[in-house]
Amino acid sequence: MLVNAASLTDITPDGGDYETVRRVIETITNDYRDQPSLETIAARLGQSPTQLQKVFTRWAGLSPKAFLQAVTLDHAKRLLGQERLPLLETALEVGLSGPGRLHDLFVTHEAMSPGEWKARGEGLTIRYGFHPSPFGLALVMITERGLAGLAFADAGEEKPCFEDMAGRWPNARYVEDSAATAPYASRIFDPEKWSGEQPLRVVLIGTDFQVRVWESLLKIPLGRAVTYSDLAHDIGQPSASRAVGAAVGRNPISFVVPCHRALGKSGALTGYHWGLTRKRAMLGWEAAQIS
DNA sequence: CTACAGTGATGGC
DNA sequence: GCCATCACTGTAG
């Protein structure tokens, strides 16, 4: 991990940088054809180039230029390329008990029973809170069993974001409790705290098919990517790539269940529930964590 | 680039 | 059940 602790404590407590970063990424991806210089971008955002450069680098650990390179098709293909098959064969010793090993952030998970799923959250108490994160405001939702939801919103968009999530388990009781959710937020977004000793507890609430897809996603290590059809193969339904896409899109715990590491077969970023720009940001941020 | 077909899970009716 | 809707993919013009 090249990102040092100081830079992380800079970004994580107040996620203000993300707004700037988001606009930079957006600008560049919209106008990549005319290769805008740092200067032009800075001018458009009403900031000085040096200032912009600094904020961006603090956020990603990567210069804007290097970052962009990390999110190109080329790079995406490389993420996909390396040893196609072995990747998903990595053991996932989860079961419903013992701590399993999972990608970079160690996670234990359990699935909800079908009964609980049918009840659509009936009898479940979900506590939630908004917290700043490197990717904008993060909405964290937890139950007694562990983390159940993670979503993102830009400033001012909290309400639709919450409703999006709450609509998935309409019968649950929702309690605002950011004191309870805060520890989760800080765990998740600080790579320094990713360790196997204290795995993050996660509870997957979804249909059987969805849960299988999400479990597959959890097997993708940091800095790697797979295609929707890889995932389809992994769950034993090679032709169901489209259905897989839909299931990936319904992932309630984005980032932790790394749905941003699922790409189209061409390496193109096909879609993202919380905005394609955010998907780029995550991939670029991760690229910086590895190097 | 667009169009279309084949695809499987899901949710509303 | 039926039908529309997808964060898909391959083929054709």
TrEMBL record:
EC code: 2.1.1.63
Catalytic activity: a 4-O-methyl-thymidine in DNA + L-cysteinyl-[protein] = a thymidine in DNA + S-methyl-L-cysteinyl-[protein]; a 6-O-methyl-2'-deoxyguanosine in DNA + L-cysteinyl-[protein] = S-methyl-L-cysteinyl-[protein] + a 2'-deoxyguanosine in DNA
Domain HTH araC/xylS-type: start-end pairs: 22-120
SUPFAM superfamilies xref list: Homeodomain-like, Methylated DNA-protein cysteine methyltransferase domain, Methylated DNA-protein cysteine methyltransferase, C-terminal domain
GO biological-process terms attached to the record: DNA repair; methylation
Signal peptide from the UniProt entry: none
Family statement drawn from the similarity comment of this UniProt entry: Belongs to the MGMT family.
InterPro entries in the cross-refs: Homeodomain-like_sf (IPR009057), HTH_AraC (IPR018060), MethylDNA_cys_MeTrfase_DNA-bd (IPR014048), MethylDNA_cys_MeTrfase_DNAb (IPR036217), MGMT_N_sf (IPR036631), WH-like_DNA-bd_sf (IPR036388)
Top class in the EC scheme: transferase
Recorded superkingdom: Bacteria
Membrane spanning residue stretches: none
Keywords: DNA damage, DNA repair, Methyltransferase, Transcription, Transcription regulation, Transferase
UniProt GO molecular function: DNA-binding transcription factor activity; methylated-DNA-[protein]-cysteine S-methyltransferase activity; sequence-specific DNA binding
Protein name per UniProt: methylated-DNA--[protein]-cysteine S-methyltransferase
